[in-house]
Give the backbone structure.
Amino acid sequence: MLVDSIPKALAPLNLEKVAPGDYAKTGYHLEVAAAPAQMPAVAQALLKEGCFLESLTAVDTSREAFTLVYHFANFYELCRTVVHASLAKDTEAPTISQVYPGADWYEREVYDLFGIKFAGHPNLKRLLLPEDATIHPLRKEFPPEAETKAEAPK
Amino acid sequence: MITSGIEEKTFILNLGPQHPSTHGVLRVLLEMDGEYIAAAEPVIGYGHRAHEHMAENRNYHQFLPNMGRVDYLHALAYNHGYCMAVEKLIGVVVPERAEYIRVITNELNRITSHLLWFGAYLMDLGAFTPFLYCFDDREHILDLLDRITGSRLTYCFFRFGGVPVDLDDDFIFGCRAFIKRLRSRWVDYHNLVTKNVIFIHRAKGVGVFTKEQCLLYGITGPSLRGSGIAYDIRKSEPYSAYPLFNFDIPTGENGDIFDRYIVRLEEMEQSCRIIEQALDKLPNGPIMAEKVPKRIKPAAGEVYQAVETARGSFGTYIVSQGDIKPYRIKLRVPSFANLSLMVESFKDNLVADVVAILGSIDVVIPEIDR
């Protein structure tokens, strides 16, 4: 059972939180909180358990910090693990693309839309927006559509 | 990844973004060593419409029409994933009949998606006739879905708490007639393509995805099942009315183009089985939950909901901070991961196989760009 073996595998890493989740409500079997610096080790442990990286994204949580959100699932057993990592703004997070090559693009997307830099990423450049763009649109200080609309011609 | 120090013996070949076989606007830079590919780097984002940013500036209802436009070929699965995520957030239970209607329309939509892939992919490989056959079949489903959803492609049919329109007798009759017709066509499809020696030579042993690669890149959908892993959200993480029906998860063995082709063809038959059972057992009752709030304002929290689309696992991740607008919506789209593995599988292949591999994972570029 992955619900038991994943917490055991994560125990040596001294993470902030490893707790069972409320699947019916959130869709998570395990909820984990870690520091961004621990993520390569967490990813390594989850890969050993046979989990794949389902998604990687960020949330602009507050003025001070982003939250990096990693979802892991398994092909053979129903067990979704979510890992939240709070990252202070203007700091870098280590990449996990050397563990999961699939994380390469996810991290580029997060860099593109949030401006979060991943230390050690082999090819950190914009993915969806044009290369010469200067904005990071999913940051909360980025103006919503209504404010960016061009003025109607007179 | 193509770096600046290109060796003398290689050259760069640009594919796309307006090439018809890239199924949308995908540009791939190929570093060529003669006829063989040394490295490939896709350039995406031409169809970026900022759906995730739009979500933060709309309320939950207003974002619903966007879902039909992320992946226009299997729009109902996206409707389904988003509606289920919001229903989980506000704690609404969908009536049984509505779940059945959702499953029936969803599976019809899956067949249209696979049929379009079948025709367009074989046209990529140079066969024109299958395209005409499958568009003929697909048209019947579009008429059926048009009848109850009101649109032909970018459906916005599901609502929070159920569906707005009930199935009528004409739809049910038409559905049964269509399944009968589609089944009679399998013989033609297999004679025309599956047994075609030119197709077999182009598809067997080309573009192989190993199980380990699938794990490292997070591949889902028929591209994964072609490699022999029976991971299908409909079975692995049952949702809606799917646990009530008998159906199989077709898998391949070698993970090459041919296996992915066979898996998709077999999946259409399984979808027919699901639709038939759902029509047989269709219960009576309401199609909308009774108490769905008009103004949706979920409590603070987050939810992740996965559904199986024609291309793989689609996940909706919603963060709510107790406002009428979502604080953050992330759409985990299957083609995104599938395309990033494809780059790896290009290596050491002939340039003539690029189009064959690209088409075989059934990418929908606007889905990746969002």
Chain A has five helices and seven strands.
